[in-house]
Every structure is written in structure tokens, then in C-alpha cells.
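Form 7-S
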Amino acid sequence: MRNTIAIVLLLALCIPTMAQTTKLTGVPDMVGNWTGLWDAVTWQKNTAWMPNENVSYWPKSEETFIITEQKGNMFSGKIVPKESPRSTEIVLGIIGPDNTTIDIVDEDGVYWGKMVSPTKMELFYQEVDIEGMAVASGAFEKM
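Output:
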């Protein structure tokens, strides 16, 4: 009886884990539009053209990653902010050997995160340069 209970408990713990790992059993197809919302906090240096040294909070800022090309685990495209669609930046990305971790760079920042499913990714962002800094987190879904 104890062995039966132990086996049932072991299966109850292992089956959900096995189901999650089988969701991403290959390199995800990144080509397409990934839209999501960022929660961001930024600081801009006080300059002649922008007299500001305040911290700014940007909840729920919408952006879209438009991935146009993928070769194996490497991909490229651009990111487009909804509030200023002309402010696009080129992005380059790579998917890790586990097919879930993601690293992306744009023209002045770094993204990292994971694939939650074949159509959803969660990302963090970091940018530090001479003009200021920013950090953000968000979830993006393939449309």
C-alpha cells in the first residue's frame, strides 16, 4: 500500500513537469508579430535639449516585435513602440540550447527572458548609456 501511494504521488509530481517540457521540444518559430505591454522605469540625464533629471514610470507601454527572419535559433527584425511608431529599432536575437531562454539586443539595450509557450514570451529589458538608463519587464504574445 505504501509503495502504491508513493508511486501515485511521484506520478502526480512528474506528469505536469513532463507536460511543460514537451511544449517547447524544438526551436520556437519566432517569425511574426509579437505584441505586449511593458512596465518600465527610466531616468534621463539633464541636457540642454531635455532639462530633466526625474525618474519616470511607464506602466503598460505597448510595443511590437516584428520578427522578419529566422535561421535556426537566430532571428532578426525590429521593435515598434505604439506611442511613436517611427522610433523603430533593429533587433537581433538568439534562443538558447534549452529552446526556452531568449537573448535579444537592439540599438542601445539588452533583452533577456524565456519562452512560456510557443506563442508567448516574457522579457526583461535594460539600457544604460550616457544619456540615461531604463529597465522594464513585459509579456509578449504572437499575433
